[in-house]
Amino acid sequence: MARTVVVTGSTSGIGLGIAEGFAKAGDNLVINGFGSEEAINQAVESVGSLGEGSVIYHPADMTKPDEIADLIATADQTFGGLDVLVNNAGVQHVSAIEDFPPEKWDQIIAINLTSSFHTIHNAVPLMKKAGHGRIINLVSAHGLVASPFKSAYVAAKHGMMGLTKTVALELARHNITVNAICPGYVLTPLVQKQIPDTAKARGLTEEQVKTDVLLAAQPTKQFVTVEQIAAAALYLASDAASQVTGTHISIDGGWTAQ
Ligand code: NAD
Questions:
Q1: What residues line ligand 1, using a CB cutoff of 6 Å?
Q2: What is the predicted pLDDT for the residue at 45?
Q3: Measured in angstroms, how far is the CA atom of residue 208 from the centroid of ligand 1?
Q4: C-alpha angle 81/86/90, rounded to 5°?
Q5: What is the distance in A from the centroid of ligand 1 to the CA of 126?
Q6: What local confidence, expressed as pLDDT, does residue 191 receive?
Q7: Which Pfam families does the record associate with it (predicted)?
Q8: How far, in Å, is the centroid of ligand 1 from the Cα of 138?
Q9: What is the CATH number of domain 4-186+224-253?
C-alpha cells in the first residue's frame, strides 16, 4: 500500500532525490521547499511521473511554526495520515565565529534544528494514532564531528543527533522509529554555494577547496551521491529496519572513521 511521505526541502538536492526514491516505490509525496514557480511545478511533475502515487507541493517556510503545522495537517487531510517524515531542509553559512552574522546563526538554528522539533511535534500524534511511523532526519557528518567556520551548522546538526535519540526513546513502544542519516559531502547546490565563501575564508582557489578541503575529509576522495542517500532513507522506512532506532547511518566515504 502506498505510504504518505513528507520531505522538507525537497525542491532541490538530497530532498528531491529522496522524494524521487519514495515516488519510485509507489508512495504519495508532499514536496516542500523554495524555488521559482516553474522549478517547483517541474519538480512536482517529474517526481509524480516516477510512480503510481500522488504528489502535492506545500510552501511551508521552515522558520515559521504555523506554516510547518499546516504542512503536516495538509499531508493528513490530503492522504489520510503520515507514514514517513523526512526532515531534510537545511542551509549553510561559512564564516569565522567573530564575523558570523547573528541573524545567520538564528536562521540556521531555525531551519536546521528547530523546524524538526515542529514537524515531529505535529506528526507524532498522527503516527501514534496510526500505530506506526518513520522519522528520518537528514543530519550530516557534522552532526558527529566539527569543522572550523561552520559554528551554527555544526551546532544545529549536533542538536539534531540529540533530538533523534531522545524522540526515538520516547516513541520506542509506539512502533515509530527515529533515525539520522549522516552524509559526507554531496555535490548539491548547498555545497556548490559554500565553495566561494570557504575559498575566501581559507585563502584558497575554488578547485583547492573541492580537493583539499571538502574531499580532504573523505578518505574515498569521492562525493556521496543523492541516490545513495535515498537508498538509505528507503531502508530506514522499510519493515527490515523496524528495530533500527535512535541511531544514524553514516554515508561519508570513511570521514568519521578517522
Ligand atoms: P540544497 O540547498 O540543495 O537543498 C535544500 C532544500 O531546503 C531546498 O529545497 C531549499 O528550498 C530548502 N529550504 C531552504 N530553506 C528553507 C526554508 N526556510 N523552508 C523550507 N525549505 C527550505 O541542500 P542539500 O545539500 O540537498 O541539503 C539537504 C540536507 O542535507 C540539509 O539538511 C543538509 O544540511 C544535509 N546535508 C547535505 C550535505 C551535502 O554535502 N550536500 C552533506 C550532509 C548533510
A1: 9-15, 32-35, 61-63, 88-91, 111-112, 138, 140, 183, 185-186, 188-191
A2: 96
A3: 23
A4: 140
A5: 25
A6: 85
A7: adh_short_C2 (PF13561)
A8: 9
A9: 3.40.50.720
Q: What is the pLDDT of residue 187?
A: 86
79 to 44, 61, 85: CA distances (angstroms): 16, 21, 14
Q: Domain map of the chain by residue range? A: 4-186+224-253, 188-222
Q: What is the pTM of this model?
A: 0.96
pLDDT at 193: 86
Residues with pLDDT less than 50, the chain: none
**If you take atom 21 of ligand 1, which residue's CA is the nearest one?**
33
Report pLDDT for 161.
99
